[in-house]
Design brief:
The structure is a single chain. The chain has 165 residues and is of the alpha+beta class. The protein folds into two domains: 60 residues, NADH-quinone oxidoreductase subunit E (Arc Repressor Mutant, subunit A), CATH 1.10.10; 80 residues, 3-Layer(aba) Sandwich (Glutaredoxin). 44% of the residues lie in helices and 11% in strands. It has seven helices and four strands. Strands 2-1-3-4 form a four-stranded mixed sheet, covered by helices on one side. Helix 2 packs across helix 3 and helix 3 packs across helix 4. The chain is elongated and about 50 Å long. The relative contact order is 0.12. It binds FE2/S2 (inorganic) cluster.
């Protein structure tokens, strides 16, 4: 994970960028895939990276900032190797979402959007991730859902993730 970086796409990546732009009637529509490319490359999206994407697409910085900050799948700060996004929206809240969030926060000794000193975990409170029927739930690294959570299941998950590379 780069804590600071100078955003720059390589020649090959620029081909991908142009491919994304060519798929849409207007270049501005490519803002999401370009932000995603930045996150895949650097692990998170800095303000400079948002400006860089804006320059490529000839978009005002505020527009790119608006998109990046609207979606929790875009990380606006460096995250841990295991980024845990805990839903505390209505269904999850009613079924113990805050208990799950607070348990993880206490156990890891980090608050919302913080990273453990060893860089292994980070935690973030998020809005509904569309898995309300299996609340409470969390998402790991924008990829995997863990559902019908209990404190015990969370403890097992944290244990299993501790030594992942
Ligand atoms: S309220 Fe948590 S997934 Fe919908």
């Amino acid at each position: 994970m780069n804590s600071e970086y100078v955003p720059q796409f390589s020649e090959d990546e620029m081909k991908q960028v142009n491919h994304h732009i060519s798929k849409y009637p207007k270049p501005m529509a490519a803002v999401m895939p370009l932000l995603w490319m930045i996150q895949e490359k650097y692990g998170w999206i800095s303000l400079d990276a948002m400006k860089y994407v804006g320059e490529i697409l000839k978009l005002p910085h505020d527009h790119v900032l608006g998109v990046a900050t609207f979606y929790t799948m875009y990380f606006k700060k460096p995250v841990g190797r295991n980024h845990l996004q805990v839903c505390t929206n209505v269904s999850c809240m009613l079924r113990g979402g805050y208990e799950i969030f607070n348990h993880i926060s206490d156990k890891l000794g980090i608050a919302n959007k913080e990273v453990t000193p060893d860089g292994v975990f980070s935690i973030e409170e998020v809005e509904c991730l569309g898995s309300c029927a299996t609340a409470p739930m969390l998402q790991l690294n924008n990829e995997e859902f863990y559902e019908n959570l209990t404190v015990e299941k969370v403890d097992q998950l944290l244990e299993s993730l501790k030594n992942t590379k």
